[in-house]
Structure formats: structure tokens, C-alpha cells
Amino acid sequence: MTRLLLALALFVLTAPAQAQDQPVPMTPERVLDILLALDPDTRPAGNGVELTIEDVPVLVIIDPRADRMRAMVSIRALDGMSEQDLRRVMQANFDTALDARYAVANGRLWGVYIHPLSPLKRDQLISGLGQTVNLALTYGGLFTGGALSFGGGDSVPLQRELIDRLLEKGQDI
What we know:
By secondary structure, the protein is an alpha+beta fold. It has helices at residues 2-20, 28-38, 83-95, 122-137, 155-169, and strands at residues 43-45, 48-53, 56-63, 68-77, 101-105, 108-116. Strand 2 and strand 3 form a beta hairpin. The chain is globular. 25% of the residues are buried. Residues 1-20 have low confidence and may be disordered.
């Protein structure tokens, strides 16, 4: 019984300190502050924010009632995309897109990063934006959100083909 009371007292005494260590929830105002640091020309637009990263227009939609945030980059029209193109973006979604994803909506191919708003951390937001922009910049090439890839997918061998072809061309040197 004494051990139980001691454990309970210890829990009660330490609980407020642990609660204070909880991260501050992300808010639309905090998202805007972070985006302004990335692009001083960031423009609020309705429930969203428009900014430019690496010359790529980015739209960030914030819905506090649903506790969601979505960053989007328009990549291209779906018209003219072959079945092979669509298959390639799906492969990338599995292994190289990281936390961002290729998505299809309104007749367009998009790069998107979707995250619950309140637990979102500054570094996650910045990394997600970078990955989303990378999907647009590497579309048609490496199809990657960044430097990492999941080793169990199809992208690494496809990316390795280029290196192998270049090495083959250089065999005679």
C-alpha cells in the first residue's frame, strides 16, 4: 500500500511538469509566420496561403476545424500522361516521394503534403514543403521528394539504370 501511495504521489507531483513539456499546437498564424520566413512575398488567399519556393508556386490550405494542412504544387495536366507515366508516379509514391505524394485532381497531376495541423512541427512543415517542391522539380527524372528512398520499391533500380548506362559509356576511357 505504501508503494502504491508513493507511486501515486510521484505521478501527481511530476504530471504538471510533463504537461508543460507538451509541444505548442500548430496554428494557422504560426504556419503563416513560418511561410513568411521562407518567402517574404507569401500571400494569404482565403483559407490558404500562396508562396514560391525555388521558382515553384506552392499553395498551402489550412483547415483548423478539420485540424488539417495541405501543401500543393501543380505539376502538369493529365492530358498526355501515358499509363507508364502514371505507373511511374505510383512507384515513386511507394519509395522515393517520402512524406509528399503525387496525386491527381481536377485534370492535373499534383505534388501534395498532407498533415494534421495541431501536431505539425516547424521542421516537419518545412521538410514537407521541400519534398513537395522536389516532386515537381524531379518529375520526369528521379521522381523524388529528397535524398532518401525506401529500399523495397522499384525506383532505385530505375534510377540505377541511368548510372549504369553512364558507366557503360565510360568503359572505354
